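Q: Study each token:
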Amino acid sequence: MIITKVCTAIFCALLSPFVILLRWLPAVYNAVVRQEYVYYDADITTLTEFLYRVYGESYLFFACVSLIFIFIPFQLIKDNFLKRGNQLPFIKRLFILFLLTTTILLCAGMFINIWWVPWYKNFLYLVFALVFSLFFNTVIYLIGRKFDIDGK
């Protein structure tokens, strides 16, 4: 059971860079379908180079950060609730994952552009955190149902 929990956290962490870099999806579509390789002002001529620039350069960083700061604490919080004998419904799990994601975004925002843009544009980060949490909470919930991770 613990191996399944670890594998689920690693699977979600390996999938998270694609969700984090979701804003690049239209550019990836244009690169694959139309062979238009637009990545800032870089001179890119192949699909491989484009995909490396979009995903490859930061993939490991985002995967490790999401594993260490989001998915492992999420699993520890869930295990703590289960050890006390409390069941966590889907909505509570979503809220916990949302809080973890929002905390990471706020901490990162102290060092990047979240404070340089107008305050009302920062609500998009909360929407992103909600979508991120909803997607991964659903994935973890479905894997947990399949392999009976949480003792249901």
Q: What stands out?
A: The chain has one domain: 2-21+58-147.
